[in-house]
Design brief:
Blueprint (H helix, E strand, L loop, with lengths): L10 H10 L14 H12 L7 H11 L2 H6 E7 L2 E6 L2 H22 L6 E6 L1
Parallel strand pairs: 2-3
Antiparallel strand pairs: 1-2
Helix pairs in contact: 3-5
Length: 124
């Protein structure tokens, strides 16, 4: 979508404005749009109307793992398809590393292979 600009004033209009000493306002009513449609059109143009929401992944984490693991490991970020999980205990880290392929498969089934490509665990 290309943004329309107001039409350039004609030579006649510029000469009259110079003679009178002021500009007459142009009719811009056909260029006004609702802000909601402007935002929607801009998101569509940028390809973000169906943008993936990482909060959905964070919420789904708790339902995919047991309560004990959910209390000791939480998603921190999702960047470029890599889901980073902060783990509190080394024993939980070990168990998550063993379950990594299963968790990744569940995430990819729920959110798509392009949205979640890898899971990384870090102690901290």
């Amino acid at each position: 979508m290309a943004f329309r600009r107001r039409p350039r004033r004609t030579i006649r209009e510029r000469a009259l404005a110079q003679l009178r000493g002021y500009w007459e306002p142009q009719d811009v009513s056909k260029y006004t749009r609702d802000s909601g449609t402007v935002v929607e059109d801009t998101l569509k143009e940028l390809g973000l109307e169906s943008r993936f929401n990482e909060e959905q992944v964070f919420d789904a984490w708790n339902s995919m793992v047991s309560n004990f693991i959910a209390q000791n490991a939480r998603p921190v970020s999702l960047q470029r398809g890599v889901l980073n999980i902060q783990v509190l205990h080394s024993t939980v880290h070990y168990e998550l590393e063993r379950m990594k392929s299963q968790l990744l498969a569940k995430m990819q089934d729920s959110f798509g292979r392009n949205n979640v490509k890898e899971i990384r665990f870090r102690l901290g």
